[in-house]
Amino acid sequence: xxxxVFSATLIxxxxxxxxxxxxxxxxxxxxxxxxxxxxxxxxxTERVRSAIVSSGFDxxxxxxxxxxxxxxxxxxxxxxxxxxxVGILGASKQVQVLPKDCLFLGELSxxxxxxxxxxxxxxxxxxxxxxxxxxxxxxxxxxxAAVVPGVTAYEAADLEQLCLFLDGKLALQPASPAPRxxxxxxxxxxxxxxxxxxxxxxxxxxxxxxxxxxxIGPPGVGKTMLAARLPGILPEMSFAEALEATRVHSVAGLLxxxxxxxxxxxxxxxxxxxxxxxxxxxxKLRPGEVSLAHxxxxxxxxxxxxxxxxxxLLRAPxxxxxxxxxxxxxxVRLPADLMLIAAANPCPCGYxxxxxxxxxxxxxxxxxxxxxxxxxxxxxxxxxVQVEPLEADELYSIAExxxxxxxxxxxxxxxxxxxxxxxxxxxSNARISGPRIREVAKLHPAASSLLREAVDxxxxxxxxxxxxxxxxxxxxxxxxxxxxxxxxxAEALAFRQRGPE
Length: 501
Hints:
Elements: E1 2-11, E2 14-25, E3 30-34, H1 39-42, H2 44-54, E4 63-69, H3 81-91, E5 102-104, E6 107-108, E7 114-115, H4 120-129, E8 134-138, H5 142-146, E9 152-156, H6 159-166, H7 197-209, E10 213-216, H8 223-228, H9 239-251, E11 267-268, H10 276-280, H11 289-292, E12 297-300, H12 308-312, H13 315-320, E13 322-327, E14 330-335, E15 339-344, H14 363-370, H15 375-379, E16 383-386, H16 392-395, H17 404-421, H18 434-440, H19 445-457, H20 462-479, H21 486-496
Parallel strand pairs: 3-4, 5-8, 8-9, 10-15, 10-16, 11-12, 12-15
Antiparallel strand pairs: 1-2, 2-4, 6-7, 13-14
Helix pairs in contact: 2-3, 7-17, 7-20, 17-20, 18-20, 19-21, 20-21
């Protein structure tokens, strides 16, 4: 007596199809799981046994062999509890009908209740790719799976309910995705920021072109406040972008109960004590903060306090927009299409260059502190802005300031111009390759001469040259100009040079 049902295991942020094959043989009772199972999967036999008995079924008094195919892929997680239980009940004819177009995922309690597990969205996307029409997931995970077109998701509360559904004795209503509000953006408003016109301008340019930004200034000038308001001026995610970003969060188990798609772009702000595994991904090939910020913002506050080794791991993702993890159990590529926003003090005490407060650091201290950001990493940051302390007139000003909504409209218009130039390519200037930006960017003759002078005098590396060109194009897009003028290029060069002294 044998039976087979479908499930999946997570590899990175993608699901890989697994056939759960159950065979019953008349020998001394024993349950064996083969097919490269991890410890959590091996332990599932005890949970499954108790869940089957508690649900009113009989556990076979036979030799039970469970094969997870393909056998050369390591199986992780507790989501195999449900397909194993269904397979055993199907092989022992306690469940008469097992659909061939369905994927099962869920952890079982000892009482038979089905508990949520990560990766329901990835499971549904796999079902669509493989031509499978239905998925069965725990209660609370159906909204994630239901957002995938062409896949019907069902939520099962416990094993007994699921078996009645499979035998046609109980109807389960298909799950529906959570309704999206008319505006999914709920970040703090930029109108709350007083003064800081240069920094506000840099934030707008960064949002319009998807550029990386470094803010340097003493404590309390508003660097963190500005960064927290960046998601409010970024364009809303398209459905495809939301699906990509949500899949990462679904695999990481960060979606709330009943949540389907992320409502706004991710904003991740890890503490400076984060490890390399926490930033780029762990030994189990699960996503780190870099991937959790996919299609959104990674904010590193007090960036010189981060480990130099950890910071250097950002160099490749900022260039290729993906993370390649190679571990003992395999290799995987994780998405990392993000904007990096970093904030730093000018020195360890934070008051170097402050107009009223003296700096207590020596020159050696300042150089060592600023040297924690390597040249190659700084070269990948397009905009460098000095955030100055507010004067009393700015702090107490009652003048009306632009809201995030007004700025976001200009950003969306600039993004629309970028998308029109590359209908099938990147939707932001920062994602255009170096050779491509040289073809796309149309410089006024005077601007072209200024750029040549800057390459010789600053000097600019090849990467820095292309990034200045991209920022110039973004500034021109914000102005609605068809060509990059001298003012556009000069502003881009000025932001390029506003780094630590």
